[in-house]
Amino acid sequence: MTTVDDVLELYERWGDHHYDEVVAQGLHARQTAALAAEAGADDAVVVAALLHDIGHLLDLAGHPAAPHEVTGPAFLAGLFPAAVTDPIRLHVEAKRYLCAVDPAYRDRLSAGSKRSLLRQGGPLAPDEVVSFEALPGATGAVALRRWDDDGKVAGLAVPELEAYEPLLRSVGP
C-alpha cells in the first residue's frame, strides 16, 4: 500500500523534472496547492491540488505507462479518499470541459496545456459536458483545473513540500 512517505519520496526524487511547462513538477504542485489553500478549499481538495500530476512522477519513476490522470489516482487510492482522488482523476477532463463551456478559457492555457489538449481529445462534446457535470468530484476538478492553469509561474515563492506533510498525513481514507 502507498504511504505518505512514498508520495514525498516521489516529489523529492522527481520534483525537479519538467513536464511540458516552464516550472518543474514540484514547484507546479506547490503553487497549485497554495492557490487552492488561498481560495479556502477544503483539505482534501488542497491535497488533490498538490498531487494532481503525481502520475507524471510515477512515469519518471518507471511505473507502467498510462495517462497521468489514471496512474495518479490509482497509486493514491489506498491512501486517500475519493474527495482527493476524484478531482485528480477528472482534472484533464475538467480542462476539456472548460474549453467546451468557456471559449475564452482555451486562450489562457499555457502552450504545454494547449498541446496536451489536442492529445487528450480536445473540448468535450455537448453530451460529454452534461455527463461530466454529473460526476462526483466534477466541481472540485474544475476548481483544481483553474489552479493548475495558474500554478505555472517561474520563481513564485510558495511553501516547501515539507509544509504539506502534516496535511497529507491528516487527510486519510
Strand content: under 5%
User: If helices are DSSP runs of H or I spanning 4 or more residues, what is the number of helices?
Assistant: 10
CATH fold assignment? Hypothetical protein af1432
- What structural class do helix, strand and pairing data support? mainly alpha
How large is the radius of gyration? 15 Å
Q: What does this protein structure show overall?
A:
The protein has helices at 4-14, 25-38, 43-51, 54-60, 68-76, 82-101, 111-119, 126-133, 138-150, 165-170. The chain is mainly α and 173 residues long. It has one domain: Hypothetical protein af1432 (Orthogonal Bundle), CATH 1.10.3210.10. The protein is globular. The two termini are 13 Å apart.
Short structural summary:
The chain is mostly helical. 61% of the residues lie in helices and 0% in strands. It contains ten helices and no strands.
List descriptors.
Hypothetical protein af1432; mainly alpha; 173 residues; single chain
Strand and helix layout:
Layout: H1 4-14, H2 25-38, H3 43-51, H4 54-60, H5 68-76, H6 82-101, H7 111-119, H8 126-133, H9 138-150, H10 165-170
